[in-house]
Amino acid sequence: MKIVESEIKVRYQETDQMGVVYHANYLVWFEIGRTDFIEALGFQYHELEEQGIVSPVLDANVQFKSPIRYGQKAYVKTWVDQYDGLKVTYGYEIVNGKGETAVTGKTTHVCVTKDRFRPVSTRKKFPQLHEAYLKAKGE
Asked: Where are the coiled-coil regions (predicted)?
C-alpha cells in the first residue's frame, strides 16, 4: 500500500481560542494530503478539472485523538483505503512532530461531470489513474 506524507506547519490563524488547531482545519489538511497523493501517482487534479471532471466529497469521517498547537509541525499520511472504479475512499492519519497520532479519518469521493454532476467511471474515463489507484492500494 502506498502512503504519501505531507508536512504541515501549523499557522496561527488555524488555531482557536484554546490555542489548538480548529477542528474544521483538519479537513483542509486532508485535502492537502489527497492532492499530494494524486500528484505522487503522477497526476494533477487541475488536469482532471480541465477535462470537465471534478471529485466532490460524498462522506467525511474524522476522529480527534490529541491536539496540535500553533508553531508545531504536523504530518498528513494519506492512502487509498477503498476503490471500486467509481468511488475512492482515502484514509488519513495526522501525526504531530513526535510521531503521535492526533487525528484519523476518511473521505469518500466520486468523479462527476462538472456541468451536470453525473458520475463518471474512473476505470473507463481515466484508465491510467484507475491502474495507479489499484497499484497504490496494492492490488
From this structure: none
Integer CA distances (angstroms), 60 to 20, 42, 51, 107, in order: 21, 25, 25, 4
Cell of 105: 479519518
Q: Which of 16, 36, 84, 115 is catalytic?
A: 16
| Annotated domain spans of the chain | 4-137
* pLDDT tens-digit readout, 32-55: 999 999 999 999 989 889 989 999
DSSP result, 62-126? EEE-S--BTT-EEEEEEEEEEE-SSEEEEEEEEEETTS-EEEEEEEEEE-EETTT--B--HHHH-
User: Looking at the domain that runs over 4-137, which CATH code has it been given?
Assistant: 3.10.129.10
Catalytic: 59?
Answer: no
